[in-house]
Design goal:
two-stranded antiparallel sheet, rod-shaped, mainly alpha, single chain, about 200 residues
Length: about 200
């Protein structure tokens, strides 16, 4: 009864062992010294070499072949590394050139922005705000001078008119005075003539 219960378990273990053995055999058959990775070639030598006590007996030609393949792989890795280093150097140079171009472009952009935001006046660079303030100050100063000139002109014109009016009045008074003086002189002359005539008549 016990053996009948264990029979399926034994069959199952047997099937599993067979599949594992066949898989190991397949892997062993797939391994090759002339193809695959270095790891698989080492695996080939380890599995195919003979055992002697705790040692493995390996064929010389296998070792030389593995050595040649290993050196070839190392040379290929070195070549890839050298090529990669060349690419990295080239990319570093390109990055450096791009950074330099970017800095030049940034400087040009800053210069352009500075020129756009500034204006030249009498050879000096000024910001637009300062330029506008200066221009409005000049315009305001000129307007103030114009208003002062107009005020002075009107004031001078008024003074000139007053002076002309006063001069006309003085000239009028002078003419009147001259007429009066002339009449007085004529009267005095007549009186003098009358006296002379009287003296002659005596």
């Amino acid at each position: 009864m016990n053996s009948a219960k264990q029979l399926p378990l034994i069959i199952l273990l047997f099937i599993f062992s067979l599949s594992s053995f066949s898989q190991t055999k397949k892997e062993k058959d797939n391994l090759s010294l002339n193809s695959g990775t270095i790891d698989s070639q080492f695996e080939f030598i380890i599995r195919r070499s003979n055992k002697y006590q705790d040692y493995k007996v390996v064929k010389n030609n296998w070792l030389y072949t593995l050595k040649a393949h290993t050196l070839d792989s190392l040379n290929a890795v070195r070549k890839d590394l050298a090529d990669t280093q060349l690419i990295v150097k080239k990319q570093d140079k390109e990055i450096s050139d791009l950074k330099s171009n970017l800095n030049n472009t940034q400087n040009d952009l800053d210069k352009t922005n500075s020129e756009k935001d500034n204006m030249a006046l009498f050879g000096m660079q000024m910001s637009k705000t300062s330029y506008n303030v200066l221009m409005w100050a000049i315009i305001g100063g000129l307007l103030a001078l114009l208003i002062l000139f107009i005020y002075k002109f009107k004031n001078s014109n008024s003074i000139t008119k007053e002076a002309k009016h006063a001069l006309a009045e003085i000239e009028e008074e002078f003419d009147e005075h001259r007429k009066v003086a002339l009449e007085r002189e004529q009267k005095v002359r007549r009186q003098l003539q009358d006296e002379i005539n009287k003296q002659k008549g005596l």
